[in-house]
Automatic annotation (TrEMBL):
<dbReference type="Pfam" id="PF06462">
    <property type="entry name" value="Hyd_WA"/>
</dbReference>
<dbReference type="InterPro" id="IPR010482">
    <property type="entry name" value="TECPR1-like_DysF"/>
</dbReference>
<dbReference type="InterPro" id="IPR006614">
    <property type="entry name" value="Peroxin/Ferlin"/>
</dbReference>
<dbReference type="InterPro" id="IPR011993">
    <property type="entry name" value="PH-like_dom_sf"/>
</dbReference>
<feature type="domain" description="Peroxin/Ferlin">
    <location>
        <begin position="896"/>
        <end position="929"/>
    </location>
</feature>
<keyword id="KW-0677">Repeat</keyword>
<comment type="similarity">
    <text>Belongs to the TECPR1 family.</text>
</comment>
<protein>
    <recommendedName>
        <fullName>Tectonin beta-propeller repeat-containing protein 1</fullName>
    </recommendedName>
</protein>
<feature type="region of interest" description="Disordered">
    <location>
        <begin position="470"/>
        <end position="492"/>
    </location>
</feature>
<feature type="domain" description="Peroxin/Ferlin">
    <location>
        <begin position="141"/>
        <end position="174"/>
    </location>
</feature>
<dbReference type="GO" id="GO:0030246">
    <property type="term" value="F:carbohydrate binding"/>
</dbReference>
<dbReference type="Pfam" id="PF06398">
    <property type="entry name" value="Pex24p"/>
</dbReference>
<feature type="domain" description="Peroxin/Ferlin">
    <location>
        <begin position="824"/>
        <end position="885"/>
    </location>
</feature>
<dbReference type="GO" id="GO:0000421">
    <property type="term" value="C:autophagosome membrane"/>
</dbReference>
<dbReference type="InterPro" id="IPR006624">
    <property type="entry name" value="Beta-propeller_rpt_TECPR"/>
</dbReference>
<dbReference type="Pfam" id="PF19193">
    <property type="entry name" value="Tectonin"/>
</dbReference>
<feature type="domain" description="Peroxin/Ferlin">
    <location>
        <begin position="67"/>
        <end position="129"/>
    </location>
</feature>
Amino acid sequence: MKESFLWLLNHIGDTFRLGTNQRLFSQIIDGYDDVIAIKRVAASHWCVWAVGHDHRPYLYVLSSDVPIRIPETTYENQRWSPFYGFSKKSLLRSDRYSWSDESGTVERPKESVRLPSSHWEWDGEWMIDDNLRGEVVELGGWQYALDFPAVYAPEQHWNSFVRRRKWIHFRRFFATDRWANISDMEMVEKAECFIDISVGGFLLPSQPDGFLMVWAVMNSGSVYVRTDVHRENPEGSAWRSISLEKHHGVINISVGATNLVWAVTWDGQGLVRTNVSRNNIYGSSWVGVESPDNSTQLMQIAVGRNAVWALSRDNKVWFRKGTWGDHTFWCEASAVGTLWVEMVGEMSQIALSSNDQVFAIDLTTQYVYFRTGVSSHDLTGKTWQKVSLHEDLSQFKDLGLLSDGRLCSCTLDDEEFCEIHGSPRPPSESTSCSSVSLSTVAQSVDSSPANQSVRSKSVTSIQSAPSSVKSRWSVTRRSSSGVRSSPSVPTSLELRQSTLHGQTPSPGRLSFPSLADAEQMPDSVPGQVMVAAQPRLSWKWLDVTNCVIDDPSRVDWLSSRDEEFSKMGSVNNNNLHPPPHPNKAYIVLMLEVKTNSTQLCIPSPLFFSPLPISFMLGLKQSTWVRKAAMQMFQHGRRSRWIECSLELEQGIGSREKGTLTVHYTHHRKQMHTQIQLSDMTCIMMNTDPDLSTVFNVFTPTLTQTDQPLMLKAASEKDATEWLDYLSSARASAWNLNRPIPPGAVWSCSFTGDVLVSPSGQDCTRPYLRSWGLHGGHMALIETSVAGVTWALGFDKTPHVYNGGFGGAVCTGQSDMSYNTQQLIDSHRVYVYENQKWFPVVGWCNKGVFKHNFHWVTSSGRFVTSRDQVKLPSSKWNWVSDWTIDFSTSGGVDSNGWQYSNQFNGPFHRSSHIRDQYRRRRWVRRCRLSLMGPWISAGSLSISDLSIQLDSVESASEPVVMWAVAANGDVLCRYGVTQSNPLGESWVHVSRDQDKPFTSISVGSRGQVWGLATDGSAWYRTGVGPDNPAGKHWLQVVPPPPGNFRLHQVSVGVLSVWAVDTGG
């Protein structure tokens, strides 16, 4: 699960952030400017929009390994004439400007190109792009043509009368990890200011990467949107006013993950934005929604992907039934819903995530609560559960803020706190409480509001300390008595330990981390009394738009107290013990035959199947037999499935010695096929979703003939258990029970299975190599003899091999797994809907194929409906519904259709008179959770990576590693060694041209090659262990031009190979 964040605001405008993979929340500290107080916050996965206490808009862009670096381009145009030659003076009046954009319609001299705002800076100088469609142009970068609206060539010909060249200048957005002010002069001129803001729409189709809909509300009740906000333009372009038509002004607005936009008017009614389409993302009209009843008026609205929740002015919680954001493109009723349903609880604020998870702030306690049980099938959930929030104070210690007395690290149970009465003394006067003993350590400081019922448990007076004591507090640990001392406070204060009657600290109170977190802090942590004027940890606002939680049980701060203790008590044996000895035997079924009696003893079987499989055991035999009824695929001209009986005979003393026998009937004759366990080279499940109960057995002979032994079990569970039995028998030969050493060959199937062939095998005859199945689900694996292995999941998340093993087979045996972690991968499944045009009925799905098949999967399978599309296996789960994919290659119309005069294409977006076929692609997302010896390498999406081929002399020697980000930027990984394969950080490597990269390869002796999207090849100079990022890019002359372009490159020791788009 990729990390996402919950954002919090307190009453004084401090901003806090808590990640789903973290245990402690931390404060956002702007180290570049004065502290900006925030009153509203709306977050996405890459930036945060906010409204400050000064009612102005602010933007907080999260720093990333891939910077926001945008090219500015302009074209220099010239024409040839007998008098001036090639010169701008020769341009005709009908020609384009001497400096223009690519189309030639807009004048664009270099001097007129300005930075969008003060948050940008220029990166380098103007450069000439000497690349044209992957080819190197002549000196000077000029491109020649007969006339300007023509196809340009990289060299000059006799009929070349015009030429142009492209200039590039990069600009970089540097205002990251800080609050950047957004221009609002339009509102200032109208005497308006911001009171609310919301972001969403990042799941809208056909939008640029990182697209956001930013909606804002003014104090006058008017509504604005910030246009053109996306990753490459984080500030957007301009504020656009949205007419409210005849409706009242707005006080609150919320934007969903798709195109749901709701607002609350002055009179407590709801407004829904309608007529939203792919080409009109901001809609064109409003529809009013009545409040729950005449006596109830809405105060705040919260919109997720398919759910809408609201708070009324009496702080009651309401759920809107009948909304479904994925269907609002075609059905207005899905945006409006049907009725309001009152929920349990009284909240001061409510927020929804992009997958409809619900969070809220309690009205009385100001605690944050989470709605349990929310799913796509039950959007209302079950109960409210308190979120366990504890602060990470280490950042203040690093910044030196603890020493000046701004924080206090007091901790205690949830219902006990330390209450301080009186007026603080000046900082110059200090006290000590080293002699004070409390039964527990305080959790919070309170100014004791009059409206709270407090029952005093004990009173302790604090005496003045010598003036030599420093003016800071000390939280000390007493191991002998288990008692902690309270912080020292001014002498005029009275310290009293109290218990709230069913209540917790109010806005004038400060809460602190738990005892468990305090154990990780130093023995002495300074702090200062927090009074009602500093309600630091009293929550006023939260935002969870980007807080995507698929499995709440895997988020530490969403676990209940009992679950936390159970996690603390549970022990992972795989992480406590070293890997087993390589020569140790691993027993699947432990059998003991007593020779002096007639009793058969089976002590504590590690793996015992409940299946109806018979065991034939003799007292004097040294083998055991396992049988099962299955089906075998018979290859040949009339291939078919036939009934068979499977028999596995294995020695008790040595599991690697055994025989797999298949008994079947052929032409009424009893026949059998025998395979020695030692001859097996690979065993794996079939990759066809229709054959999920089939597993394949490979031997060198079967591999050469491409006819593996295919066995179909009664269920997928039966097939998995047989796969475990056979794999455990070959564990030692296939490296299934020990870490994978350098030099092994890694591979992954197109369905994501990870296969490893041990080192030291014959490379000249690949059919003799054995392949073992290991844990993980990967789309790409890169390894090196230097002992570093990285992989990419189907969701482009990078992973690093951690030196463990197991996770794929024999999951119930601890000896077959070591240092495995839970991995989550996601995948998009596509299916095409096809229609054919008939003169009378028009477009129809009848008659496209035989038997009414008009749906085709991406693999070419025909189905009668999209609901018949199957998951790869039972390990996968659907996490979304079917939606139309508007990003299909070739372009689509407003309804997602593509047209062609042939069924096999090519397809285009517009319908022509000869087009007889059309199709549109539907997409659905699924997720997989499994175990494997991998650790996540961050949330940055990677499309390609490569590691050096050279070996290393020591475990601390640097290893060169490069990658290509999902947006095409080139990255270099610093700090990668054999002892630290994860490395330290990504370093961005600037490109000299505006074409993103698609492939990268690191060869021997620092050779780094890359390919851009236009097929151009590039070589990086100066790469070495001391400078893994290199110095300069040099373009390499590509192969002779053709109809295809290069898209993958691989560098060896003395040669470079590449593959073009034609294969």
